[in-house]
Design a protein that fits this description.
Elements lengths: L1 H27 L4 E6 L6 E6 L2 H5 L5 H28 L6 H17 L6 H11 L5 H32 L3 H4 L2 H24 L4 H11 L6 H15 L2 H25 L8 H4 L3 H15 L10 H12 L4 H28 L1 H16 L14
Antiparallel strand pairs: 1-2
Helix pairs in contact: 3-4, 3-6, 3-11, 3-15, 4-5, 4-15, 5-6, 5-16, 6-8, 6-10, 6-11, 6-13, 9-10, 11-13, 11-15, 13-14, 14-15
């Protein structure tokens, strides 16, 4: 009875937190704000009035920018889905492209609107493993690897393009220590990740197995960490697939950041030069916002993403309300894509319900075997 209550309580709490955060952010930035800035060199004061969300949504709407954002989001999602398909096939799992797109759309619907214990990623993994139960760990590993590759792609995107813009003398980055710090941190993480991944190939199998065994002792997360470790190890043996995956990630993130850039133009401002962030700024702050919203606190990062983008815009010396309204505009596009996933879900309802039941049963049973039994001893 307690488990059943918790099963329904957690989703409601996530929705409550998300709606509460979003309501707080909108309420806090609803009215215009007046700020006074002092030039440290001249001492001159400048009075700036930034529009509130209430004022912005009552103004004109540039539907052409919204349509461009929607098109770019479709391109980004399509490339990410195909990347997952390649990662699944790299593990020698039988899988069709059509199923990759169907399952991913259902997964997007789950992750956006159903904040339960059974997320869209688990539905995708268990669907693949349904016909091959002995390969369940590999199916889960493909989803973990896809998430990790997407995260790495965002970090690399900031590191490379942010560094290029900085080196080229872009004024908004060259004069902003906060944006420079973000670029440096992301470059460090990206460089360390690449070095660690390449060095992993020199580890003997016995050390890989030993480390996986140690990870299993981590409370609650041990089995998942062990599976992730084996997934990284196995993909290290398939560098060509990883390289293609990184390339797909790069193109999809271009589309994602450009989509956010378009979304920031949906509500035209009175003073574009002062209020609108440039593309070079979005190259740095956009991926950071998408990384933060991926933390599974609320459904689809509702409330969290809006707050993070307000903070990022403040770091970039732009009005916080512009970051919030840009994220809300892009969220509208994301919801439309997720609703497409709902249509696919209706056509697959019987299959998905069966898989969901399987996932829930697995969550209550002892963890499955790790990838060790499936990893080839090359």
């Amino acid at each position: 009875m307690k488990k059943h209550a918790v099963k329904w309580l957690v989703p409601f709490l996530k929705y409550g937190v998300g709606v509460g955060l979003l309501a707080y952010v909108i309420y806090n930035y609803w009215d215009p704000k007046t700020t006074v800035k002092v030039d440290p060199k001249t001492g001159l004061e400048t009075v700036l009035v930034t529009p509130g969300i209430g004022e912005l949504i009552q103004g004109p709407i540039a539907f052409e920018w919204l349509a461009a954002a929607a098109l770019l989001m479709v391109v980004a999602a399509s490339l990410q889905i195909y990347r997952w398909y390649l990662l699944v096939r790299a593990l020698d799992l039988p899988f069709a492209v059509r199923n990759a797109y169907r399952l991913s759309l259902v997964g997007i619907f789950y992750n956006t609107f159903i904040p339960g214990s059974v997320g869209g990623d688990l539905v995708k993994a268990y669907f693949i493993a349904h016909a091959h139960p002995e390969r369940k760990s590999r199916a889960i590993a493909s989803v973990i690897a896809d998430r990790a590759l997407g995260l790495f792609g965002l970090i690399l995107f900031v590191a490379v393009l942010g560094s290029v813009a900085w080196a080229a003398g872009d004024a908004r980055i060259a004069n902003n220590p906060d944006l420079q710090r973000i670029v440096k941190v992301m470059a460090g993480i990206a460089g360390g990740s690449v070095a660690g991944f390449l060095l992993l190939g020199f580890l003997p199998q016995r050390r890989v197995d030993r480390f996986a065994g140690r990870l299993k002792w981590v409370p609650k997360l041990g089995n998942s960490l062990s599976e992730m470790w084996y997934a990284v190890w196995e993909y290290r043996q398939r560098l060509k697939v990883v390289a293609v995956g990184v390339a797909l990630s790069a193109v999809s993130h271009f589309a994602l950041v450009f989509a956010f850039h378009c979304a920031s133009r949906v509500f035209p401002p009175a003073n574009p030069a002062l209020e609108l962030a440039t593309l070079s700024e979005h190259v740095v702050i956009g991926p950071i916002g998408f990384i933060a919203q991926a933390i599974p606190i609320t459904p689809g990062g509702v409330g969290v993403a809006e707050g993070v983008f307000a903070w990022l815009y403040k770091l970039s010396d732009r009005p916080e309300t512009r970051g919030i309204i840009a994220r809300l505009s892009l969220r509208l596009v994301e919801w439309l894509i997720a609703l497409t996933g709902y249509i696919v879900f209706l056509r697959m309802r019987a299959e998905v319900r069966e898989i969901q039941h399987e996932v829930e049963e697995a969550a209550e049973s002892p963890p499955a075997e790790s990838l060790k039994s499936e990893t080839p001893k090359d």
